[in-house]
Model the fold of this input.
Amino acid sequence: MKNGEAMIHRLFGSNPQYKKQRLIRALIAPFPPIMRDALRSARLNGDTLILTLSSQAMKSEYYTKRDQIRSFFKVLQRETSLCEGVELRNFKFYVDRKTDFVEVDPPELSYEERAVGRFENSAKNRAVFDAIENIRAVIKKLSQV
Done:
């Protein structure tokens, strides 16, 4: 058994759940890659195909293509044995609100400290005026280093 699909089929071929998953894969296969990538999960529940999608835009895209899915299902029914005992009448579409977070490193500052302590001290209160002058002294001391 060189082929992985053949090996899985040999192990789980009689399992009806596996047949449903192969049917779902076959239904989604003809769509463009962007639509296939947007599909988070799919399952058959009776005569309803339930699809969980990654965004609201993909939900509307699948909603507009539901007739194509239904017609492709009819083609699969005629040509393969995947659709035995399965009827597809309804569709339900849900949006998965999970997002894929990417951690971003904080950017490094691209400038050096350039303060030299030249600013006007217009404080009227003596305590505030002295505090600002102390800050000015610290800035001048750091700028000379």
Remarks:
- The chain has two domains: 4-95, 111-145.
- The longest helix spans residues 126-144.
- The helical segments are 4-12, 16-28, 33-37, 56-64, 66-79, 126-144.
- DSSP finds six helices and three strands in the chain.
